Amino acid sequence: MANPNLSVAPPPPVAPVPAPRPVALELRDLTTVFPGDDGPITVIDGISLAVRDGGTLAVVGESGSGKSMTFLSALGLVASPGRVQRGEVRIGGAEILGRTPEQLRRLRGAVVSMIFQDPLTALNPVFTIGEQIVEVLRAHSGLGRAAARARAVELLARVQIPDPSRRIDDYPHQLSGGQRQRVLIAMAIALSPKVLIADEPTTALDVTVQAQILDLLADLQAETGMALVLITHDLGLVARYADDVAVMYAGRLVEVGSIEEVFSAPRHPYTRALFRSIPRLDGPVDEELPAIEGQPPNVARLPPGCAFEPRCTLGHGRADCCTKRPLPLAGDRAGHRSACFHADRLDQMEAAR
Amino acid sequence: MDRLTRQLTQLAITVFGIVTVTFFLVRMIPGDPAQYMLGDYATEEALATLRAQLGLDRPVIVQYGLYALRALTGDFGASVVTGRPALEEILSSLPDSALLAFAGLAIAVVIGIPLGIVTAERQGSWSDLLIMVVALFGISFPVFWLGLASVLLFSQELKWFPALGASSGGGFLDQIHHLVLPAGVLGVSVAAYITRLTRSAMLEVLNQDYIRVARAMGVPQRRVVWRLALKNALVPILAIVGVTFAWSLGSAILIEVVFSRPGIGSMILKAVSARDYQLVQAGVLVLAVAVVLVNSLLDLAYGLVDPRLSAR
């Protein structure tokens, strides 16, 4: 008798559903306050965000909207007298907010790294770039001087600094802006962090260098599987490099979702206004870009309702927008959330104007 | 023009300026050297003869021209009181003053710089506030008052240190014993100033982006402050030390008087009351050159600290 098993055809191969990658960095309800004349001023208000291993989250918003402050708060870097009032910060699932300053220091630069906006001021002018990379390496590892220096040369080569064994003894003023940002990236990836936070990494650089730096970051990410948080106000970069996007306004999140969803159907009037103010290559040369009317908000004196209401072309003056506290980012659709009372009706409202 | 030549040219111009200014300044002191030397009852005739001998009867501008010409050959005239060359007199008392000034400055640097760093690091804390208030007192009280008060306390009451003199002929330990109180008073007074300025230099550096970056990279606070920030603050701190060197020389003069120590200070003071023009001029010149020299050396040191300055 034939083995019945043999008569059974093997099951057709099922396309494997990739398990979602683990969350690298998660913020929950993170809130930071500064003391003000009339009680504490909330500079970031209940921020909840997550970025997965290997994923890229873009955080966009005007200057002063709290993009950088959110991540400085998460890393225990808020300058006194500001302080984190409540919330959770998880790295690889482990809560870190309650940790001691020394424990946080060990995480910074090693597990979560940051690069900053202006490479011209971010490097210490009186130390060679080698000394500065070695300083970071030795802050987190027991590497000896010679070994740390050898590793620094490798890192400079990795970020494509030409002739690294000679350039390592250069001072920052001997390098171009793009090269300095590369050096800062070398410092940031020196200890193979899980998360790299890039705070407007290319704003101070010229356009051709911008693309090189971002491509370098994308390469490094593909190679190491680190999560990337890209803080920017350049929506062009967001579209090209990010998986998810979080839009901030006046210290609050107003919209969160995947790039596809947010770009194809933005569900907050502020996001829509941001998109309208991007210049188009195919637009008329003398086209005047619509700016968002009104003043950027002062977080010390936000209106009682939605923070965007005074400048919102759709909600301005509406009773609910003026009086009710802004919605928390309640789920409207999976993975795409908005803090607008009228998220579902924005198209009709725009058409009706 | 290379660095050294530029420094030397600068030095020469400065010295020329100092010679000129002191020459006219000294002649603005009321009183007549001839009158002083011969006393109130001298006859007009005797006074005129002496003035002619000293060259004081010529127009001031001619006196200046002659003085400047002789100065070029290193001849600064003779003291009218002792008759010895003025420069020689002054240089012989330079070591006493230099010892006091450097000892005071060393104490000031050793106290002031660390206190400035620590208070900058803890800006706004109680320890910061306390040290800054004390430093403000230190700056506000004139050094001669501090000197007199310390003589009262440490010499009269506690009898720890001698009040007068430098024990110039005594043994090394005895000289140190005599030096402690005046150098300490000078040091504490200058330290107050160095503390405040070091603090503000450090505060400025600690607010720079690169310090924020170092913290974001997890560099320990101790390394951030004492290495990464301090080296940046060193240029302004060195500049402060240069300025305070001039100041401690000036204070050393007052201290020499309070503690009756030998030195350029006490010598210039006596020379002024005797209207000994040549001696005053030589004294001020030596002090000024010392200040300029120390500051030139510091200028060279900046280049060692900050690579951007040595590139220029």
From TrEMBL, chain B:
Keywords: Cell membrane, Membrane, Transmembrane, Transmembrane helix, Transport. The chain crosses the membrane at residues 12-29, 98-117, 129-155, 175-194, 233-259, 279-305. InterPro entries: BPD_transp_1_N, MetI-like, MetI-like_sf. Its main location: membrane. Belongs to the binding-protein-dependent transport system permease family. Residues 94-298 form the ABC transmembrane type-1 domain. This is ABC transporter permease. PROSITE patterns: ABC_TM1 (PS50928). It comes from Azospirillum doebereinerae. Pfam families: BPD_transp_1, BPD_transp_1_N. It is a multi-pass membrane protein. GO terms for cellular component: plasma membrane. Gene3D superfamilies: MetI-like (1.10.3720.10). The keyword Amino-acid biosynthesis does not apply. One of its GO terms (molecular function) is dipeptide transmembrane transporter activity. It is found in: Cell membrane. The lineage of its organism: Bacteria, Pseudomonadati, Pseudomonadota, Alphaproteobacteria, Rhodospirillales.
